[in-house]
Write a structure and sequence with these properties.
about 375 residues, alpha/beta, TIM Barrel, 8-stranded parallel barrel, 12 strands, about 15% strand
C-alpha cells in the first residue's frame, strides 16, 4: 500500500491522498479580481488527482499584493470574481480546495516576474507605499516601507479575519495563512526585518505576536469545519535571522492553539541568504518540526520524483508533500506517481481514453 496515496486529516478536512498542490502566484488578475486565466489554470489542476489544491497568495488588502496583477479577497467585488472560477471547478471536480491569505509587506508594489520582478519606481501609477514592521527596505534600491503603527496592525488583523469569512462563504475548505518567503508576517517574525521596540518586536514572543493574533482572529472568524493552518519559512538562511529553533518554538505555540497543519518552506526574507538547494533540501526542517508537534506537517522543496515523495511520508519525515513547479511542468504528476507506485486514481470520464498510454488498471 502506498502511504503517499493514503488519506490524511488536516483538522476537520480529510484529504484523499497526501499530494498537496502548493500555492503559486499567477500575476494575472485585474484590480485583484480572478479571471479567465484562473478558471483555466485551476480547472486543469483540479483534474490532476492531487489530494488538495491551495490557490495562490491572495491579498487581504490592496497594499498586500506582491504586484499590481495579484488576486485579492479584500472586498465583496474580489469575492464575486472568484465565484465563476470556483463554480467551474466544482462542476467537474471534488478535489478539496484551499486558499492562501497573504500580505506582501515590504515586498509589495512590484513588477510581474516576467517583467523583471523589481519594485515599481516612485511615481509609477501602478504602485503604492509598502508596509512593514520597520522602515527597512527588502533591497537597497527599493523605496523604504512605512513602519506600521497600532492602527495599521489592528486593521491588518481585522482584514485577515474578514478575508477568511469571504473564503468560507465562497466554499473554500481550508485557509493557509502565509507567514513565509519574506512577506509581511515573516517580516514581523525575523529580527533582520523587525527592529521594533514595542510589543510587536524585540523578544521572540513579541515577534511571534502578530502571526498568532492573525491566526486566532482567522480561526475565530470561520466555522469549526474550516481547516486553518500556517505556512512558514523555517529559516532565513542568514546568520542572526529567523531560524529553525525559533520555528520550532512557533510551531509548538500554534499546535497548542489548535492549528490544523504547518507547511514548511524556507528563505525569501533577505538577499544575503545562502540556500543549499538540492532535492528535498528543506526536508530536515520539516522533519525537525514534525518531531515537536501533533499537527500534520507539509514538506516542500524539490521533491519531484514519486518514489522520493513516497519515502518522505512513509518514513515519517512529513505527513504530506507539496508540489509546486513540478506540477506546472507536469499537471498530471499525481497520475504518474500513482502509476509508479501501483495505485489506482479516480479520473474524470472525459480523460479515461488515455489509460492505454499510461497503465492498464491505473484509473479507478
Amino acid at each position: 500500500m502506498s502511504r503517499l496515496f493514503s488519506a490524511l486529516a488536516l483538522g476537520p478536512l480529510t484529504l484523499p491522498n497526501r499530494i498537496v498542490i502548493a500555492p503559486m502566484c499567477q500575476y494575472s488578475a485585474s484590480d485583484g479580481h480572478a479571471g479567465s486565466w484562473h478558471a483555466m489554470h485551476y480547472g486543469q489542476l483540479a483534474q490532476s488527482g492531487a489530494g488538495l489544491l491551495i490557490v495562490e497568495a491572495t491579498a487581504v488588502q490592496p497594499a498586500g499584493r506582491i504586484s499590481w496583477a495579484d488576486v485579492g479577497l479584500w472586498d465583496e467585488a474580489c469575492a464575486d470574481a472568484w465565484q465563476p472560477v470556483l463554480a467551474g471547478i466544482r462542476q467537474w471536480s471534488t478535489m478539496p480546495l484551499g486558499i492562501q491569505l497573504a500580505h506582501a509587506g515590504r515586498k509589495a508594489s512590484c513588477h510581474r516576474p516576467w517583467d523583471g520582478g523589481a519594485q515599481l519606481a516612485a511615481g509609477d501609477a501602478r504602485g503604492w507605499t509598502t508596509l512593514a514592521p520597520s522602515a527597512l527596505p527588502f533591497a537597497s534600491e527599493d523605496l523604504p516601507p512605512q513602519a506600521m503603527d497600532e492602527a495599521a496592525i489592528d486593521q491588518l488583523i481585522a482584514d485577515f479575519a474578514a478575508a477568511a469569512q469571504r473564503a468560507q462563504a465562497l466554499g473554500f475548505e481550508l485557509i493557509e495563512i502565509h507567514a513565509a518567503h519574506g512577506y509581511l508576517l515573516h517580516q514581523f517574525l525575523s529580527p533582520l526585518s523587525n527592529t521594533r521596540s514595542d510589543r510587536w518586536g524585540g523578544s521572540l514572543d513579541n515577534r511571534m505576536a502578530l502571526l498568532l493574533a492573525v491566526f486566532d482572529a482567522v480561526k475565530a472568524a470561520v466555522a469549526p469545519s474550516m481547516a486553518v493552518g500556517v505556512r512558514i519559512s523555517a529559516t532565513d538562511w542568514v546568520e542572526g535571522g529567523w531560524d529553525l529553533a525559533q520555528s520550532i518554538a512557533l510551531a509548538r505555540v500554534l499546535d497548542a492553539r489548535g492549528c490544523h497543519f504547518i507547511h514548511v518552506s524556507s528563505g525569501g526574507l533577505d538577499g544575503r541568504q545562502q540556500i543549499p538547494v538540492g532535492p528535498g533540501y528543506q526536508l530536515p526542517l520539516a522533519q525537525a518540526i514534525k518531531a515537536e508537534v501533533e499537527m500534520p506537517v507539509i514538506a516542500v522543496g524539490l521533491i519531484t520524483e514519486p518514489t522520493h515523495a513516497e519515502a518522505v511520508v512513509a518514513t515519517g519525515q512529513a505527513d504530506a508533500v507539496g508540489i509546486a513547479r513540478g506540477i506546472l511542468y507536469n499537471p498530471r504528476w499525481p497520475w504518474h506517481a500513482a502509476a509508479a507506485l501501483g495505485v489506482k486514481v479516480p479520473v474524470s470520464p472525459q480523460y479515461r481514453r488515455c489509460e492505454p498510454l499510461a497503465q492498464r488498471g491505473l484509473f479507478a
